[in-house]
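Hi all, long-time lurker, first post. I run a small reading group and we've been trying to get comfortable going from sequence to structure in the token notation. Rather than ask abstract questions, I figured I'd post a concrete chain and ask someone more experienced to write out its structure so we can walk through it together at our next meeting. Sequence below, copied exactly:
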Amino acid sequence: MQWSTLVATAVGAVLGVLATLVADHVRWRRDRSERDRDALRSAFTEYLTTLSAAKDAFSRVDPSPEDVGKGHVAIGEHGVYAAQQQLELVAQWTLIEKAGRATLSVLDFHDAVVAGHSTNSREYVDAWRAARQTRAALIEEMRKALERT
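-- Answer (accepted) --
Happy to help. Here is the structure in token form:
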């Protein structure tokens, strides 16, 4: 038997194995990226849903000046803190900071409502607008994170 035939067979086998390993690695990375994106999307959706539900509920509460500053209890009852902690496990620091600001803006909105400010008062409108703007900034950051993943 000729040596060139043996060498060609061995080289072909090695190249075949390497090609299979590379293809498997590429497929694994793609699958992992999709799982990461799904986990992020799920955490983002959960957080935004609970935050919106809390803000909507706060817009319907009756004025109660003794509850000013107690929004953290109400927001916790709506599951916002739990969703935020889940977000902290999977998201980057810049996104977590913006989520924290969004939570604080909803707390400020709660305080404006329970303080008795009417829906057309400057305090109410400013708090509502701030909550909307921080949420919009957070959503933009979430979109960027999903594009990067």
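A couple of things your group might point at:
The CA atoms of residues 33 and 113 lie 42 Å apart.
The chain is about 85% helix and 0% strand.
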